[in-house]
Specification:
Helices cover 55% and strands 0% of the residues. The protein is mainly α. The N and C termini lie far apart (43 Å). Mean pLDDT is 92; it is low at 328-337.
């Protein structure tokens, strides 16, 4: 069977030990998919794998807000980021919630009939554009950790998937057939509809406490997971020199949310700053990363662990920029334990 991975060859999940095996066990139980490639591709860097899973679990799966609404939000983000792998995945997961009609409307590129779902989809698509999706939110303020955590988790996961995975969720793109995506969704329905206890993923995080996270999620498992992923993703900056770090930081800070043109003049050439080029592509146009881009950067000491960290650093630089335009304190937020 053709590998779903690009530019990296993670170890088979069956060979996982320690913390990676623990993450896979929790993913299988709470997500319903034993070996999702979006997380397997991070397994060469366990310090990234655990917080990436924690942010998704604590927001999409266990965070406040209806699962269907948060799946719509995740799909909207994936559309905005041009990530067909994740668009297909969330269409399947909408089938798993039991809302088959909604899943198929979205699969055909139509808007939801339900007004709330339509507003959530529109809001989530606009989160890619800094400043275009602030308050008022299309959900109650107390559900902000669930919805904001979900869209930020998928701003990260979309970029990882586009950079390091092929577009096919299932072999030969079988998920694009309605009977297949409906059948796969139904097979996941028990896991998707099972209540999840908030905070369970935090036990998988290593190192000292990462902090409370952004104001909108402070004191919740979502905030802790976001802070942990930020800390882990920052490690990838060490693969760049100071000039490259400044270029990535300043370029993303000035980004307007658009998809860069093919004649992107601010993108350094492969023979100039190949590390900064990879990080910037990961942040703003990960689907454009080629074998040549990776080869120009890679040296004998650059393992898959290094590549995953560099891509994650670029991806999270964009996520943090998006977060800074979405965040606001949520009054009266109930702490989750």
């Amino acid at each position: 069977m053709t590998s779903p991975f690009r530019h990296t060859e993670p170890l088979p999940p069956a060979s996982a030990t320690g913390r990676v095996a623990e993450v896979y066990e929790q993913i299988a139980r709470d997500f319903g998919i034993a070996e999702p490639s979006t997380f397997v591709v991070l397994s060469s860097a366990p310090e990234l794998l655990a917080p990436a899973w924690a942010l998704m679990r604590e927001s999409l799966i266990a965070g406040p807000g209806a699962r269907t609404g948060k799946e719509v939000a995740a799909l909207g983000v994936s559309l905005a980021n041009k990530c067909p792998f994740c668009v297909d995945a969330h269409t399947v997961l909408l089938h798993a919630t039991g809302d088959h009609a909604l899943a198929e409307r979205l699969a055909r590129g139509r808007e939801p009939e339900d007004e709330t779902h339509a507003r959530v989809l529109d809001w989530a698509r606009r989160t890619r554009v800094p400043g275009a999706a602030g308050e008022p939110y299309p959900f109650p303020r107390q559900e902000a950790p669930g919805y904001l955590g979900t869209v930020l988790a998928f701003h990260f996961i979309n970029r990882i998937a586009s950079a390091l995975l092929t577009e096919n969720l299932l072999p030969a793109g079988a998920q694009r057939l309605r009977p297949v995506r409906s059948l796969v969704g139904r097979s996941l329905s028990r896991a998707v509809r099972r209540p999840a206890v908030p905070g369970t993923a935090l036990a998988l995080l290593d190192g000292p406490a990462p902090g409370a996270g952004p104001d909108w999620a402070a004191g919740t498992p979502v905030g802790t997971a976001y802070a942990a992923l930020r800390r882990a993703a920052t490690l990838g900056a060490g693969l760049l020199d100071e000039e490259e770090q400044a270029l990535v930081r300043d370029t993303v800070a000035a980004w307007d949310g658009s998809h860069p043109s093919l004649s992107w003049h601010g993108l350094p050439g492969r023979d100039e700053l190949p590390g900064a080029r990879l990080a910037l592509l990961s942040a703003l146009a990960p689907y454009r990363i080629t074998d040549e881009d990776v080869a120009a950067w890679r040296r004998p000491e650059h393992t898959d662990h290094c590549l995953v960290h560099l891509v994650a650093h670029g991806a999270f630089t964009a996520v943090d920029h998006v977060e800074s335009t979405l965040s606001s304190p949520v009054e009266g937020l109930t702490r989750e334990t």
